[in-house]
Write a structure and sequence with these properties.
With 416 residues, the protein is an alpha/beta fold. It contains 14 helices and 24 strands. Bound molecules: uridine-diphosphate-N-acetylglucosamine (UD1). The site of uridine-diphosphate-N-acetylglucosamine (UD1) has 23 residues, from α1, α5 and α6.
Length: 416
């Protein structure tokens, strides 16, 4: 297994370009199951999760050509099953459920089970499909869904689930009648998917609000569309720039998707300015501790919580970080303690007392964003940090060592 080795203490400076959004690309790739003909998607990131969804679609009979642009053709769906082997490596595999039931009238998808950041059930996806007339059965760890024709329905999500909203939005495009999704997720990735579906001929209104209306149509046609930039990747590099007292231009990002982070980083004393084509982030020697509460969009993203804890670890004063989206998302804290951070976790809150410096150590990642936070900690720490279980980072950050090296970081990957 690979390791990433970081020699901390370098100020990041220069310019990087943000890749396409993983969380937008995954449902958009799944949406190609809804059409016949070749769909073409641009700005697709080169990531392990994208390889997983491509493999999954290939197993269903989809023809695939290229990486970026990525072309997919679902003329002949030969199989309606997503196996445990693929779903266990990526929970977002559940995104094929809605499109398969809508187009093929059936699907058999392994249930994702638990993961490092909490229970993460898919009950809301299943409840919504049932309300649209699907028969749902759980057998041998698999969801079996059948519906000769899904029916439009009024659906209320108890929690604004991102992949749940996407799954049901895709299913509803080919349903009979109109579906209303209440308390739907408002994430930019949902809006990107709705745009792509509308270009395919779907009739979706209200994406980006908590009320989405989808008028079913009889068929969709293929499209050529762009994936939005990855706001979590952009946010991670913005925090890295602030953390290392650096000066970094984050190009190709969408500042409008980063409002909550920009507000918090500015409150912490980091300077963020709009420049043509992106944002410039300029660190300050003294970072001020700020409180953060993670929330569904447009609130502060849970996917940037771990990175923000690292920044707060070396800030002046005490910060309280509350995680309200996932119940077990402080796994990185124990590793940060080994690097000299002063953090107490109580329930869903972490109280972070800033220390003058972190110290490099061997650390282990438990999930994707935890890995990113440990890399950031390594950049800011004195001495050497060795990160193992690197495969987590490859799920969501394209060329992270290359991008950080180009900014002057001392980072390399070694084979163990
Ligand atoms: C998506 C993102 C992930 C991000 C998360 C929250 C993708 C591929 N992944 O994950 O990076 O961290 O949104 O912004 O887009 N819940 C239920 N029942 C359900 C579904 C969800 O109780 O059926 C709960 C979850 O346990 C969690 C909350 O709802 O507490 C939000 O989860 P959700 O928005 O569904 O996360 P994902 O879509 O899995």
């Amino acid at each position: 297994m690979d390791k990433i080795i970081i020699q901390g203490g370098e100020r990041l400076h220069g310019e990087i370009t943000i890749s396409g959004s993983k969380n937008a690309a995954l449902p958009i790739i799944a949406s190609s199951l809804l059409t016949e003909g070749w769909n073409t998607f641009h700005n697709v990131p080169n990531l392990a999760d994208i390889k997983t969804i491509k493999k999954l679609l290939m197993n269903l009979g989809v023809n695939i050509d290229g990486d970026n642009p990525l072309r997919l053709n679902a003329d002949h769906i030969t199989n309606c099953e997503a196996s445990y082997n693929l779903v266990k490596t990526m929970r977002a595999s559940i995104l094929v459920l809605g499109p398969l039931v809508a187009r093929m009238g059936r699907a058999r998808v392994s249930l994702p089970g638990g993961c490092a950041i909490g229970a993460r059930p898919v009950n809301l996806h299943l409840k919504a499909l049932k309300e649209m007339g699907a028969d749902i059965d759980l057998k041998g760890g698999y969801v079996e869904a059948k519906a000769s024709k899904l029916k439009g329905s009024k659906i209320y999500f108890d929690i604004p689930t991102v992949t749940g909203t996407e799954n049901i939005m895709m299913a509803a495009t080919l349903a009979e009648g109109t579906t209303l999704l209440e308390n739907s997720a408002r994430e930019p990735e949902v809006v990107n998917l709705a745009h792509v579906l509308n270009q395919m001929g779907a009739k979706i209104r209200g994406a980006g609000t908590d009320m989405i209306e989808i008028e079913g149509v009889t068929s969709l046609h293929p499209v050529e569309e762009m994936i939005i930039p990855d706001r979590i990747e952009a946010g991670t590099y913005m925090i890295a720039a602030g953390l290392t007292n650096g000066d970094v231009k984050i190009m190709g990002c969408e500042p409008g998707h980063l409002d909550s982070l920009i507000t918090k980083l500015t409150e912490a004393g980091i300077e963020i300015t709009s420049i043509p084509g992106g944002l410039r982030v300029t660190g300050k020697k003294k970072i001020t501790g700020v409180d953060i509460k993670t929330l569904p969009y447009p609130g502060f993203p849970t996917d940037l919580q771990a990175q923000m804890i690292v920044l707060m670890s070396v800030a002046n004063g005490i910060s309280v970080i509350r995680e309200t989206v996932f119940e077990n998302r402080f796994m990185h804290v124990n590793e940060l303690l080994r690097m000299g951070a002063d953090i107490i976790v109580e329930g869903n809150s972490a109280v972070v007392r800033g220390v003058p410096r972190l110290r490099g150590a061997p650390v282990m990642a438990t999930d994707l964003r935890a890995s990113a936070s440990l890399i950031l900690a390594g950049l800011a720490a004195e001495g050497t940090t060795e990160l193992s279980r690197v495969y987590h980072i490859d799920r969501g950050y394209e060329c992270i060592e290359e991008k950080l090296s180009s900014l002057g970081a001392n980072i390399r990957r070694v084979k163990e």
